[in-house]
Automatic annotation (TrEMBL), chain A:
Its main location: nucleus. The gene is TAF8. InterPro entries: BTP, Histone-fold, TAF8, TFIID_su8_C. Pfam families: Bromo_TP, TAF8_C. The keyword rRNA-binding does not apply. It comes from Homo sapiens (Human). Keywords: Nucleus, Transcription, Transcription regulation. This is Transcription initiation factor TFIID subunit 8.
From TrEMBL, chain B:
This is Transcription initiation factor TFIID subunit 2. Residues 1-23 are annotated as: Disordered. InterPro entries: Aminopeptidase_N-like_N_sf, Ig-like_TAF2, Peptidase_M4/M1_CTD_sf, TAF2, TPR_TAF2_C. It is found in: Nucleus. Its main location: nucleus. Keywords: Nucleus, Transcription, Transcription regulation. GO terms for molecular function: transcription cis-regulatory region binding.
Length: 256, 879
């Protein structure tokens, strides 16, 4: 009852105030409302001044417990635009940001080259010394064996293989560079030392000769695409009639 | 004695033979060579040959054939046993009873021995008696078939066996055998008529291990297994008439590569080298195209084979339809220096296929025509491939070579004519050997002979134009190819032989010009021309007084009479004058075109039409002459010593565009160590457009000049700042850039400069410390990781530089150098060398360049009485 009464007062007071184009109800709005609802306004001061009025004291104001902020380091990151704002905030930066620490890199070219050179030299020296220590050696001076140790020379059984074939290291390099067609192009151009061969001209000649060539290979072959080379043909089986075992006579009959 | 058999042959000469007289009383038409057993272990060969001959005289009773070191078991003629005598006089040249022991006696005896078996005179080591049963048959001039069984044991020449001593079967070991030899030496491995003028068709059969391949001349008809399937027989047919001397053989476990551009070309190499073979031969088709185009003639044989073998005596040997190369010519794409050399070898062998193999010679005195033509067309190929500069440089190099040889040893005679056979008529009496036979020549003489032959061909070209020259070649080739397709009975085969007179005749037919004086001068006579030139400028008459003297009395020289071109560069331009060199006139007056005028600033026109600004302050105020050149086109085989002022040489170096002129002036400037010469050389070094070889020789000249000027030299050592600018890092000038050899010109310069710098000496005749440190730094900072090419040749040059930097120590009292009294610089150098040597053992470089170079620049070690043990046995037989 009381509640609806009070809310009715509030509602009509708001209506009155809005009626007069205001947003905040004034005292007069409430008075009019009370009058309208049949309440005798004049009795109000007397009621307020009654002797045995109960006074409700205001609740004691307690200090809100402050949460400790000791661990915040730096500013929390705001949400990036793709995360809706209702999502929880990022944790403190220290929980996820990493800061690598390093020394100032050596970028001086001279030092780098120096280092590379001496490193390689050291490796080489260590290796050759090791080889010299473990294997046979020869020396430059008759009396001193240790100062300039030379790995003993051993003749190769098939000398041309080691001499001609590129080492594995070089092979690797070659594969790396060969993969780029461009390089290959300049390579062949350069090989003519300093005259640039006219590529287009050379190609033209190429094709013309290729067209001529089948006259030779084609006459045996008929088809251009299949390489007909006598060395690629299968070896024939001997004819059975050549059974007599005289080496000389074996070949003769065919030819005389 | 041997002449008796020849005379009737000459009488009975066939009309179809057109001038060619066979020295033999019979004609060879066909020969079968069958080798049915090859033993690598014992290095022996067993086989037989069968020659089909037609007697040309009725009373033929003896047949002489060539054969050396073969053991002949049995000879049958038309299936009848025939008696034979085998005698090789060259085995014992001076009989043991001889008392004379001098070179002259030996030389004469050897020449006599060689001519006693000379096939070109119808002689031979093997004399076969025709059985009496066949005499009637012979009188009817009917065909004879001579069947000879022979074997060959441990041949000393002709066939070379390579048998590496490793485990495994012969094929796994890479054992191979190939024919080799100088000139006509096929008789070393089978009996034949070993003459370039006796052509016949061939059937060749070789039975080899199933894992091996036999490569020989002509078309491979078929390959058949023997009945036990462990061997196969290769059957070759050569239908183009070919001389026995052009027959060859290579047997081994070869890898086979069919040329991707021309399928009738097949390449062979030893196992594992296939990738190198692919790269090396990838260029061959362009050479083919070039020759076929200029000769307007197809390659005469139906196929072509290249074989790369180990232990070759010569790098290139050309035979009918196949060429045998040294395996050392193979290279990968990473190798720069070897590439042009290998390509030259390929081109050379191919040129010889046309002239030398297909077209053969009538006699030894016609050899120069073949060598000349093949050398000449090879030169044309060089001009097209490597450019005019390289070509001219090569011509100049060859010219210098022949001039130096002839002046030192005596004349080289291209076309010797032997009349009467008397000693006094001997055209080569100044030589210690007879030039009557190819086999009595010295090796060096023969290479000079080849060199002169192609230079003379070039002179002929100068005279009749290249177009006519090529027409002549084409004529020779087309005649020969018509003849080659004919049957023997048509007697056309002799048209495949070239003779001097035939060649000259077709030149005069084609060009209509008379080149007889030229031929007389250079072909029929030996010797070169030696000019001395000097000049004076006559201001009053405005005339250049040129004096040209000749030295024709010293050995190896001859007198020149005829036109001589002189080019004079004046202020107003370049003018050619043709002087007539006559008996007694030494002085020649050449009118000058320009008045001396120094103040008018104007560009100076050069020979090639270019106009350049020159700083004329150096020149003589009175004379308008900038420089003078005698015989600029090298149209005489000559040596010119010309005197002109140093500034003229400098102008010539800076502004003459001909590489030969530049090189001549570099040579001359060595005698003028002045700051102006230094500047001119430095400018050339820096000039990128300049030919790289000129820049390279400028390096060495600069080093010499710097040494002569050592007391007045200012600034850093010669070339150091230049090298720093060109090849070192900008930020740290003492460190060389990481290697990048993409530009070959600068690569060659980078290689050469340190070598030249190391020749610098200070006042104490020692290499300046600064230079040595510089070179050691170059070695230290050498970084090839990013480079597409191998740096082995570069490193080898660095070793040369190190060697150059050492001044030979004056050995005091023959003291033995020990470690303790070693100069610290030498110690550093030795350390580098040890490192290089050791690294090479672990990571061998291409062809062991580094070890080999160390060996060559053994100077260092020799100077310091050091001995490098063992380095002599490793340096790779492959080098």
């Amino acid at each position: 009852m009381l509640q609806s009464y009070i809310s009715e007062i509030g509602r009509s007071a708001k209506s009155y105030c809005e009626h007069t184009a205001r947003t905040q109800p004034t005292l007069s709005d409430i008075v009019v409302t009370l009058v309208e609802m049949g309440f005798n306004v004049d009795t109000l001061p007397a009621y307020a001044k009654r002797s045995q009025r109960m006074v409700i004291t205001a609740p004691p104001v307690t200090n809100q417990p402050v949460t400790p902020k000791a661990l915040t380091a730096g500013q929390n990151r705001p949400h990036p635009p793709h995360i809706p704002s209702h999502f929880p905030e990022f944790p403190d930066p220290h929980t996820y940001i990493k800061t690598p620490t390093y020394r100032e890199p050596v970028s001086d070219y001279q030092v780098l080259r120096e280092k590379a050179a001496s490193q390689r030299r050291d490796v080489e020296r260590a290796l050759t010394r090791f080889m010299a220590k473990t294997g046979e050696t020869q020396s430059l001076f008759k009396d001193d064996v240790s100062t300039f140790p030379l790995i003993a020379a051993r003749p190769f059984t098939i000398p041309y293989l080691t001499a001609l074939l590129p080492s594995e290291l070089e092979m690797q390099q070659m594969e790396e560079t060969d993969s780029s067609e461009q390089d290959e192009q300049t390579d062949t151009e350069n090989l003519a030392l300093h005259i640039s061969m006219e590529d287009s001209g050379a190609e033209k000649e190429n094709t013309s000769v290729l067209q001529q060539n089948p006259s030779l290979s084609g006459s045996r072959n008929g088809e251009e695409n299949i390489i007909d080379n006598p060395y690629l043909r299968p070896v024939k089986k001997p004819k059975i009639r050549r059974k007599n075992r005289h080496g000389i006579l074996l070949c003769c009959p065919g030819w005389s | 004695m041997p002449l008796t058999g020849v005379e009737p042959a000459r009488m009975n000469r066939k009309k179809g033979d057109k001038g060619f007289e066979s020295p033999r009383p019979y004609k060879l038409t066909h020969q079968v060579v069958c080798i049915n057993n090859i033993n690598f272990q014992r290095k022996s060969v067993v086989g037989f040959v069968e020659l089909t001959i037609f007697p040309t005289v009725a009373n033929l009773n003896r047949i002489k054939l060539n054969s050396k070191q073969c053991r002949i078991y049995r000879v049958r003629i038309n299936d009848l046993e025939a008696a034979f005598i085998y005698n090789d006089p060259t085995l014992e040249v001076c009989h043991s009873e001889s008392k004379q022991r001098n070179l002259n006696y030996f030389s004469n005896a050897y020449a006599a021995a060689v001519s006693a078996v000379d096939p070109d005179a119808g002689n031979g080591e093997l004399c076969i008696k025709v059985p009496s049963e066949l005499w009637k048959h012979v009188d009817e001039l009917k065909v004879l078939k001579i069947h000879i069984n022979f074997s060959l044991d441990q041949p000393k020449g002709g066939l070379h066996f390579v048998v590496p001593s490793v485990e495994g079967s012969m094929a796994e070991r890479g054992a191979h055998v190939f024919s080799c030899g100088y000139q006509n030496s096929t008789r070393f491995w089978f009996p034949c008529v070993d003459s370039y003028s006796e052509l016949c068709t061939w059937k060749l059969e070789f039975t080899v291990d199933a894992a091996m391949v036999a490569v020989s001349n002509g078309d491979l008809v078929e390959t058949v297994y023997t009945h036990d399937m462990r061997k196969k027989t290769f059957h070759y047919m050569l239908t183009i008439p070919t001389a026995a001397s052009n027959i060859s053989l290579a047997i081994g476990p070869f890898e086979i590569l069919v040329d991707p551009y021309m399928h009738e070309v097949t390449h062979f190499c030893l196992p594992q080298l296939l990738p190198l073979l692919k790269h090396t031969t990838s260029y061959l088709h362009e050479v083919f195209e070039f020759y076929e185009e200029i000769l307007t003639c197809r390659y005469p044989y139906s196929c072509f084979k290249t074989v790369f073998i180990d232990e070759a005596y010569v790098e290139v040997a050309a035979y009918a339809s196949m060429s045998i190369f040294s395996t050392n010519l193979l290279h990968s794409a990473m190798i720069i220096d070897e590439t042009p050399l290998t390509r030259r070898c390929l081109a050379q062998s191919l040129a010889q296929q046309f002239f030398g193999c297909f077209i053969s010679r009538m006699s030894w005195s016609d050899e120069w025509v073949l060598k000349g033509i093949s050398g000449y067309i090879y030169g044309l190929w060089m001009k097209k491939t490597f450019g005019v500069n390289e070509y001219r440089h090569w011509i100049k190099e060859e010219l210098d070579k022949i001039v130096a040889y002839e002046l030192k040893t005596g004349g080289v005679l291209l076309h010797p004519i032997f009349g009467g056979g008397k000693e006094k008529d001997n055209p080569a009496s100044h030589l210690h050997f007879s030039i009557k036979h190819p086999h009595t020549l010295s090796w060096e003489y023969y290479s000079m002979f080849q060199c002169k032959a192609h230079l003379v061909m070039r002179l002929i070209e100068n005279r009749i134009s290249m177009e006519f020259m090529l027409q002549v070649f084409n004529k020779l080739l087309s005649l020969a190819s018509t003849a080659s397709s004919q049957k023997f009975q048509s007697h056309m085969w002799s048209q495949m032989l070239v003779s001097t007179s035939g060649f000259l005749k077709s030149i005069s037919n084609v060009s209509g010009k008379d080149i007889q004086p030229l031929i007389k001068q250079w072909v029929d006579q030996s010797g070169v021309v030696k000019f001395y030139g000097s000049f004076a400028f006559n201001r009053k008459r405005n005339v250049l007084e040129l004096e040209i003297k000749q030295d024709y009395t010293s050995p190896g020289t001859q007198k020149y009479v005829g036109p001589l071109k002189v080019t004079v560069q004046e202020l107003d331009g370049s003018f050619n004058h043709t002087l007539q060199i006559e008996e007694n006139s030494l002085k020649h007056d050449i009118p000058c075109h320009s008045k001396s005028r120094r103040n008018k600033k104007k560009k100076i026109p050069l020979m090639n039409g270019e106009e350049v600004d020159m700083d004329l302050s150096a020149m003589d105020a009175d004379s308008p002459l900038l420089w003078i050149r005698i015989d600029p086109d090298m149209s005489v085989l000559r040596k010119v010593e010309f005197e002109q002022a140093d500034f003229m040489w400098q102008y010539q170096l800076r502004y003459e565009r001909d590489v030969v002129a530049q090189q001549e002036s570099i040579l001359a400037l060595e005698k003028f160590p002045t700051p102006a010469s230094r500047l001119a050389l430095t400018d050339i070094l820096e000039q990128e457009q300049c030919f790289y070889r000129v820049r390279m020789s400028a390096c060495f000249c600069l080093a010499k000049i710097a040494n002569s000027m050592v007391s007045t030299w200012t600034g850093p050592p010669a070339m150091k700042s230049l090298f720093t600018r060109m090849f070192c890092c900008k930020s740290c000038p003492n460190i060389v850039k990481t290697n990048n050899f993409m530009s070959f010109q600068s690569y060659f310069l980078q290689k050469t400069m340190p070598v030249a710098m190391a020749l610098l000496r200070d006042v104490h005749n020692l290499c300046p410390k600064e230079v040595l440190t510089f070179i050691l730094d170059l070695i230290k900072y050498n970084d090839n990781r990013k480079n597409k090419f191998s740096d082995n040749y570069y490193r080898a040059e660095m070793i040369d530089a190190l060697a150059n930097s050492v001044t030979p120590a004056v050995s005091v009292n023959n003291e033995v150098r020990t470690l303790d009294n070693l100069n610290p610089d030498v110690r550093l150098i030795l350390e580098e060398i040890t490192r290089f040597l050791n690294m090479e053992k672990l990571l061998p470089s291409y062809r062991h360049t580094i070890t080999v170079r160390l060996e060559c620049s053994g100077a260092i070690l020799a100077h310091h009485n050091l001995h490098l043990l063992g380095s002599s046995d490793s340096p790779a037989s492959a080098s």
